[in-house]
């Protein structure tokens, strides 16, 4: 599903933040990405959801060379990817329900077809009582859960999660990880970037480590 060959990334004229990255993620795999702050984890995820282009090297995503994608092809590719951002990126003018349902609306699904599924997911992440609440009223942990629900609601082919449990308590973190594992069981490829070593220890999955822009270890 994903292949990086000698990928490098720099911003402007600065030094490379990613250097000589080589990796492959098979369809249906589950992997962790870890490393110290500033190691390049978020930059690597940005390459994967097409928010950045590599400075050098080859990236193949869904069997397509990212460098050759046309602008009008990007929306279809992005709809196959669910992303949990550290900064949540909820839309303040939409309710929690509307934020979570947004990927389904963008895919032109009718609300009558997805309403029960969205509500079931909100129950799973503990936000059913906040379905009609707007993001400014939510706590950081509640925003995090809404962002996770939005990322997984469309059952994406690829799920990228950047510190997905950073604002929730340990018990809920384990519950959310079970949600990722359930998605993975049904075929979604999952990549979780996290500092949480306890969380990593709860799941038997390979761990990739970034250090100063280099992918230094895969276990």
In a few lines, what is going on in this structure?
This protein is an alpha/beta fold and 219 residues long. The chain contains seven helices and ten strands.
Describe the structure.
With about 220 residues, the protein is of the alpha/beta class. The chain has a single domain, classed as Rossmann fold. It has seven helices and ten strands. The strands form two sheets. The protein has a six-stranded mixed sheet, sandwiched between helices. The chain has a four-stranded antiparallel sheet with strand order 2-1-4-5, with helices on one face. The two termini are about 20 Å apart. The relative contact order is 0.20. The model has no long low-confidence stretch (mean pLDDT about 90).
Topology summary:
Elements: E1 2-10, E2 16-25, E3 30-34, H1 41-48, E4 56-61, E5 64-65, H2 74-78, E6 81-84, H3 96-106, H4 111-124, H5 140-152, E7 158-162, H6 170-185, E8 189-193, H7 197-201, E9 207-211, E10 214-218
Helix pairs in contact: 3-4, 3-5
Sheet with most strands: 6 strands, mixed
Helix-strand string: EEEHEEHEHHHEHEHEE
What percentage of amino acids are in beta strands? 25-35%
Mind telling me the CATH class? Alpha Beta
What attributes characterize this protein structure?
Rossmann fold; 219 residues; six-stranded mixed sheet; 26% strand; alpha/beta
């Amino acid at each position: 599903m994903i292949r990086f060959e000698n990928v490098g990334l720099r911003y402007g004229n600065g030094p490379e933040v990613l250097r000589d990255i080589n990796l492959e993620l098979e369809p249906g795999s589950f992997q962790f990405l870890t490393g110290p702050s500033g190691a390049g984890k978020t930059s690597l995820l940005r390459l994967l959801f097409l928010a950045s282009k590599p400075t050098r090297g080859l990236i193949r995503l869904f069997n397509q060379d990212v460098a050759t994608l046309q602008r009008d092809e990007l929306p279809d590719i992005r709809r196959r990817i669910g992303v949990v951002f550290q900064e949540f990126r909820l839309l303040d003018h939409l309710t929690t329900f509307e934020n979570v349902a947004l990927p389904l609306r963008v895919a032109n699904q009718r609300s009558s077809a997805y309403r029960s599924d969205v509500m079931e997911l909100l129950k799973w992440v503990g936000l059913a009582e906040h379905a009609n609440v707007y993001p400014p009223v939510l706590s950081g942990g509640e925003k995090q859960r809404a962002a996770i629900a939005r990322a997984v609601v469309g059952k994406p082919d690829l799920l990228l999660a950047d510190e997905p449990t950073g604002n929730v308590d340990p018990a809920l973190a384990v519950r959310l990880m079970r949600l990722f594992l359930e998605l993975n069981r049904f075929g979604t490829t999952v990549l979780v970037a996290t500092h949480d070593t306890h969380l990593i220890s709860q799941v038997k999955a390979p761990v990739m480590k970034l250090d100063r822009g280099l992918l230094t270890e895969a276990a």
